[in-house]
Amino acid sequence: xxxxxxxxxxxxxxxxxxxxxxxxxxxxxxxxxxxxxxxxxxxxxxxxxxxxxxxxxxxxxxxxxxxxxxxxxxxxxxxxxxxxxxxxxxxxxxxxxxxxxxxxxxxxxxxxxxxxxxxxxxxxxxxxxxxxxxxxxxxxxxxxxxxxxxxxxxxxxxxxxxxxxxxxxxxxxxxxxxxxxxxxxxxxxxxxxxxxxxxxxxxxxxxxxxxxxxxxxxxxxxxxxxxxxxxxxxxxxxxxxxxxxxxxxxxxxxxxxxxxxxxxxxxxxxxxxxxxxxxxxxxxxxxxxxxxxxxxxxxxxxxxxxxxxxxxxxxxxxxxxxxxxxxxxxxxxxxxxxxxxxxxxxxxxxxxxxxxxxxxxxxxxxxxxxxxxxxxxxxxxxxxxxxxxxxxxxxxxxxxxxxxxxxxxxxxxxxxxxxxxxxxxxxxxxxxxxxxxxxxxxxxxxxxxxxxxxxxxxxxxxxxxxxxxxxxxxxxxxxxxxxxxxxxxxxxxxxxxxxxxxxxxxxxxxxxxxxxxxxxxxxxxxxxxxxxxxxxxxxxxxxxxxxxxxxxxxxxxxxxxxxxxxxxxxxxxxxxxxxxxxxxxxxxxxxxxxxxxxxxxxxxxxxxxxxxxxxxxxxxxxxxxxxxxxxxxxxxxxxxxxxxxxxxxxxxxxxxxxxxxxxxxxx
Length: 667
Description:
By secondary structure, this protein is mainly alpha-helical. 64% of the residues lie in helices and 4% in strands. The chain has a five-stranded parallel sheet, sandwiched between helices.
């Protein structure tokens, strides 16, 4: 680097080269080398840059910032200086300022891959996922000089992953063992929703280039998205061995720990990262989620408020406040949300979350017409993101009834895995399943976990191999036993105590009740059921993070409820007594009677602690976490009646299920 003060002489040039080398080997020695140069040549720009980088790498970020800022002002168009300024600002937690520095660096040198990487990581911390994704694509483009790879990277930048895939496939037909191309192809197929294929590509990439940190981080992220947190943690630990304070790696590790129930570790990581990088609204929101789960309501609300203060347009943070159920917005909050909704440039995801949050605010104030309108607008937006065909579930129920016959179950008696460990609580979301879980988890023999994705994942794998559910009739004793044992092994990571029984409260498991009954014949199955209008409308006004695509239309959720009732009625007929039903309204009316019956079904002695379930301080990982920490209350049982005039499509879709509740109609 040339400077305004001097050109390096031979000896200075040698010392500078040694300084750069020492940055990788021993940053403190690099600092000493840079200071020696500056003693001989004061204000030498390149030596000052080495000094700043060495101080950052040695952990003296405050001093590094004091050194680099005058240099950055003097050389505003120098890419390496702006890159280092951005790195130091990021390390100091000044994320917004770091974004500006990285942008100056890439403006001066659009091919500076490390600046694009720094920009992507800073934007991720700020919650700008679209900007981060674009920056990562530019990082890939800037990091290669191969014209074919540059063409593929340009397609990714332009949002055309299909075109990028075509270019990369052609390249890899000739050069199949090129890590950069394999990683880029994984990005292209992942953006098209083919995540398992992307995973295989990234694993191939890392076999060729184990030190390729970008590919390893991509793999860790993909494992997390696929619900395989322990595998993600293994990749993250390798990354953190080299960069132990990397905020992106630490945030993802915290999310993985939370996913497997390690909340103390997750909270500690979030607190560490937020102390160093406080300007990251999505980080505060994730921290709030973890706090909510462990019952720290006041701290949770404060974390969510921090997120909305830093990013008033972050709709998910507003919805997170509303989704505490016990939180109340004030007039200033309503004005702030309405101001964001008035913006023409608001992202659809932020907009739909704000609609839901505003719907809750109007509901709490008794403005039900305004509330319903907001919920309906939010649901309509979400429907455009997650298309849903209700006929698919109707066909699944009809096919399940044809397969799951009394003779089939009789012929499989004594087969499957005999372990009695699991208690499945299933039904529809918002039907009282969290209440049932909390009651059971207050018993000394039962451990609560979460809504486990494993049955759904196993059913999906069976479907990929053979027609499902028809394949259930072809499974022999060994296959059924292996499936039951697989479920126990997959869920072992969620079990934190030595209690003999544990709960899986994934509501959607009702669609796989036949698989559960066959592979785990001694498992308990509890159907948590609530009045169809109360349950369905509560689901309609709830924005779910994932997996409940039927809930964004009144007709769709009504048909889904009717399908669920039909299949469970069939199971009652072919396996009498196998499923225990808990009617929500009955539980509210006479808790002790219903709790005693529930425990008796599970083969458990009555314990007083189950009546005092609200005193249980366990982590609760659902939207109802705040509500089940209070005694049973009746206020919400008939709350749907405030919205009844808008529920015509729901009533029509429910059909005879509505008039026959709580009994099942004849199918």
